[in-house]
Amino acid sequence: MTNSRLNFAKSAPKAFRALIGFDAAARAGLDPTLVELVQIRASQLNRCAYCLHMHTSDARKAGESEERLHMVAVWHEAGHFFSEKEQAALALTEAVTLIPGGVPDDVYARAAGQFGGEELAQLLALIFTINTWNRIAITTAKVPGTDERVTR
């Protein structure tokens, strides 16, 4: 099956490079395990198979356990697999990704209680970038399992 949709990186190189820069800046100072958990959860919610495959693979390479990867989708019911900080980040990821009428004060306060101001801003930037990457991959019909980051 040939993808007849545009290649965003080639068609909008300045925007693509800017997003890569934003993504790198968002990750700075955040725990790499937390970064992957956030990206996995947002990708699950957005049904972005391309990004979900990429970030579960990255998490495995970074040493994340299969057990925890399987529990990300049901972290509410399996909270004991995740630290309080990770749970706060996952809750904020869901609220920002779904925006069901705003980010609830209790969700924001929970995250603010686990992350300092600068780190919370970094986390929010990370959530913003993965949601953007998800939308690019879905809109341009990226095929899961074909990690194209080597062309970045």
CA radius of gyration is: 15 Å
Q: What is the number of beta strands?
A: 0
In round numbers, the mean pLDDT is 93
Q: Please report which band the strand proportion falls in: under 5%, 5-15%, 15-25%, 25-35%, 35-45% or over 45%.
A: under 5%
| Helical percentage | 55-70%
The stretches of 5 or more residues where confidence is low (pLDDT under 50) are: none
For this structure, the quaternary state is single chain
* Number of separate helices: 8
- Tell me, briefly, the overall form: globular
Could you describe the largest sheet, including whether it forms a barrel? none
What does this entry look like structurally?
There is one protein chain. The protein is mostly helical. The protein has eight helices and no strands. The chain has helices spanning 8-11, 13-27, 32-46, 49-61, 66-71, 84-98, 105-114, 117-139. Helix 3 (32-46) packs antiparallel against helix 4 (49-61) and helix 6 (84-98) crosses helix 8 (117-139). The longest helix is centred in the C-terminal third of the chain and has 23 residues, at 117-139. The radius of gyration is 15 Å and the shape is globular. The two termini are 23 Å apart. The model has no long low-confidence stretch (mean pLDDT 93).
